[in-house]
Amino acid sequence: MPLSKLFCKQDASVAVKRERRKEARPGELLDAALDLFVEKGFAATRAEEVAARAGVSKGTLFLYFQSKEELLKAVVRENISGRFKEWNDEFLKFEGNSTEMLTYCMNIWWDRVGATKASGITKLMMSEAKNFPEIAAFYQQEVIAPGQALIRRILQRGIDRGELRALDLDYAVYTIVAPMMFLILAKHSAGVCVINAADLDPKKYIATQLSAILHGLSTAADGSSPDKEKKST
Amino acid sequence: MPLSKLFCKQDASVAVKRERRKEARPGELLDAALDLFVEKGFAATRAEEVAARAGVSKGTLFLYFQSKEELLKAVVRENISGRFKEWNDEFLKFEGNSTEMLTYCMNIWWDRVGATKASGITKLMMSEAKNFPEIAAFYQQEVIAPGQALIRRILQRGIDRGELRALDLDYAVYTIVAPMMFLILAKHSAGVCVINAADLDPKKYIATQLSAILHGLSTAADGSSPDKEKKST
Amino acid sequence: MPLSKLFCKQDASVAVKRERRKEARPGELLDAALDLFVEKGFAATRAEEVAARAGVSKGTLFLYFQSKEELLKAVVRENISGRFKEWNDEFLKFEGNSTEMLTYCMNIWWDRVGATKASGITKLMMSEAKNFPEIAAFYQQEVIAPGQALIRRILQRGIDRGELRALDLDYAVYTIVAPMMFLILAKHSAGVCVINAADLDPKKYIATQLSAILHGLSTAADGSSPDKEKKST
Amino acid sequence: MPLSKLFCKQDASVAVKRERRKEARPGELLDAALDLFVEKGFAATRAEEVAARAGVSKGTLFLYFQSKEELLKAVVRENISGRFKEWNDEFLKFEGNSTEMLTYCMNIWWDRVGATKASGITKLMMSEAKNFPEIAAFYQQEVIAPGQALIRRILQRGIDRGELRALDLDYAVYTIVAPMMFLILAKHSAGVCVINAADLDPKKYIATQLSAILHGLSTAADGSSPDKEKKST
DNA sequence: CATGAATGAGGTTTCATTCAT
DNA sequence: TATGAATGAAACCTCATTCAT
Fold first, then answer.
1. Is the minimum distance from the CB of D27 to strand E below 7 Å?
2. Which pTM does this prediction carry?
3. Which chains, if any, share at least 3 CB pairs under 8 A with chain B?
4. Phi-psi label, residue B67: left if phi above 0, alpha if psi -120 to 50, beta otherwise
5. What is the 3-state secondary structure (H, E, C) of chain D?
6. Residues annotated as DNA-binding region (chains A, B, C, D) (predicted)?
């Protein structure tokens, strides 16, 4: 965890002395900050609360982070570190058909991201992007772009294998992205997406969405070409 | 020094000092508030800014709205709550099949809500719900619940007419809701949903989503029952 | 009631036109102001409340009184107008002994001042004197000084007639003043003088005080000279 | 620009910047608050003024007291509430007769309360009671009630010992309370009680009042029963 | 390194006062 | 004259940030 790079810029030359839990401090603060920023929003979270939850004093927080804004940036950077490379490799090796692949993909994504604290970052970015264009750009570059690229490759693979229809990938990616995004927001913005978020079973939600995405809700599995509808718009 | 000078553009010819327009004020303030709340967030918007954009002074705002929070409630009421009844009536009269209905429904929703300023409220609520539980409850009751009920009725109608598969409505509604929500968020949270929001053609997005939702992305329009996949979860 | 003199200074030359209830307005405002200032204090009373209670609009109040402070001054001036001359004459004619005179005096004072709204002025002055030295001086000159002079004459008369002990009038006046003042404050500052102000019967209070003042609480009506105690200080 | 410079006089030699004196702060703030509240009234005193007089900044005040109102409560507690127990004990031990006791009592009260800054609280409560019912209730319970109870016990003791007439204590207490209250008000509401407050010698005032209360102003120390007057009302 | 007392800019809200009608 | 919509100074209180210890 090379966190030190992120905040210690001016005093890189300082000799390292006592190392009790010094190294752990920034991480604890980032964890606390993520929790609180997601839970209460950035503006509504007081710096002292973050410090308290991390078990340190207010002053210590500002020892590690120049400002509350810098703390937010660090939180985002820390929690979106490129896991995409490993996933990409993993998916490259995957041998099932597209149905299996997308099913595996969405479920594994929920287990590894959606169900974890990291999913709060999405909510956080959505709320604060306007106020922090710099980290929004960073987030787009580090998360959105690789994420969409990954999904495009999966869809392209399906098309190439003749398992998926010929899709305009620029729009088809959102068929996969939108349900995932919505699930995260439902989890973190209780009430404004879903009536009772606690009652929503993520796995069943994913299954339902996959079923629709792959085979449609329609009973017309016969001759009625799916392309017909496009014209009716 | 009246701040109004800084913002009023349309009536630069008038000697704008203490115009008395009791009727028009609330509407102007609500418009200004919607713009700013969506643009900067509720907490980050100062009451004085809202007043200035409406071309009045700080004090005038509090003449019409008891508090900043009450102003937000009024914004929600003004832009969403009152419109469900007419939509409901409209959809009840619709005579086409489910494909036509959902297509009509999503497109008309985009034209009347998604493409308008009112769509910013969704984003707004998502960001501020945690901090203003009272408003969140109000929004859930006035917007989320009626909206989902409307979609459930449309899906149920399709099932009853044999046009849609037998669906678990508790989960199927999100097949419709998620893409709509995502489209709004893409519009208002530039960058954190979509790479380049400006390039996303809403109508084409809706068409793609509808095509997927209704008929699936899969080429397997044959014997492969859509129910099979559920087991693979 | 030559109230006009009090507020109309700059436009005394203006011709008098329509006289509906114009003349009565200032008086109604002063009445309302007295009530509210006494009830809630000067600072806590809003100008609009005064106007509302007088049945006019906020603007009208400022038509008659230059400012809220001027209104207060007018209230005080209006309600302490020299009733002392008539009382003085009345007391000059009184023919009873000192006990009868003081008894009559305190009771009549309660009936004519203490029990009326005018008594609120005392409370008002006490609270606001520091903030309005000008009217405090006015009040002292118009009320305190004549009041004390009156009491001094009554006591002096008693001494001259041999009914009262030889008193140092500079201090003896307060033997009469203090109980009266306390009674008014008990009435207007509920709770901070008396536990339950409503239970205090003014006439019984006055009788008790008079009994003490005139004859003492002590049973030692015998040889123990009242002057003895003075030495023990 | 630290306002403290404007008020701090005693420590001009110290480079007064950010002195840390957690222990001393509350006391300094309470002293400053008492002074200003008494001098200008509660509502008219700005929180920042209190802080400035205590030599700290606005924020520091709210570090120690949740609100301005809470500060007032603390002022009352600090200066009055806690002292009744010791006084009560002291008076229980007193062995003189009622004349001696009341004389001792009123003089000691003046020395310990009346002559000190604490006496300003009485005036303060009188002015603000209506606007802060919670504080008024607190004051009644903590100060008025115990104070009256103490005086009742003293009078009852005198009656039991045959030194005082059979009194209706519900009214007789005010024979003692009223002069004390008046003396305080004379001191703090200069001009509206007494012509020239500076000329009033408290000790002489108390002696005069005691003399009257105990033995009466009347020369009729003979057979004329003090009860006669009651009928003449 | 760590603390937490101290700071003060900044936000919401109130209300005396003005002025166009 | 009378109105009441509009104004904006000022008050309370919060909290990010600093700095003496």
1. no
2. 0.82
3. A
4. beta
5. CCCHHHHCCCCCCCCCCCCCCCCCHHHHHHHHHHHHHHHHCCCCCCHHHHHHHCCCCHHHHHHHCCCHHHHHHHHHHHHCHHHHHHHHHHHHHCCCCHHHHHHHHHHHHHHHHHCCHHHHHHHHHHHHCCCCHHHHHHHHHHHHHHHHHHHHHHHHHHHHCCCECCCCHHHHHHHHHHHHHHHHHHHHCCCCCCCCHHHCCHHHHHHHHHHHHHHCCECCCCCCCCCHHHHHC
6. 46-65
**Measured from the CB, is A22 under 7 Å from any atom of strand E?**
yes
Mark yes or no for CB contact B219/A162 under 8 Å.
yes
Walk along chain C (233 residues) and give the pLDDT tens digit of each residue.
343 333 333 443 444 444 445 677 789 999 999 999 998 889 999 999 999 999 999 999 999 999 999 999 999 888 876 778 888 888 889 999 999 999 999 999 999 899 998 899 998 998 888 888 888 888 898 889 999 999 999 999 999 999 999 999 999 999 999 999 999 999 998 788 898 888 899 999 999 999 999 998 877 654 444 444 444 43
What is the distance in angstroms between the Cα of A16 and the nearest Cα belonging to chain B? Answer: 38
Q: Which two tokens stand for residue C146?
A: 């004549």
Residue A162 to residue A160: CA distance in whole angstroms: 5
Residues of A in contact with B107 (CB under 8 A): 233
Could you give the domains of chain A?
3-67 (1.10.10.60), 80-217 (1.10.357.10)
Ramachandran region of residue D12, left (φ > 0), alpha (ψ -120 to 50) or beta? Answer: alpha
- Reading the block at residue B199, the tokens are 């390039």
A–B: how many Cβ contacts below 8 A?
A: 260
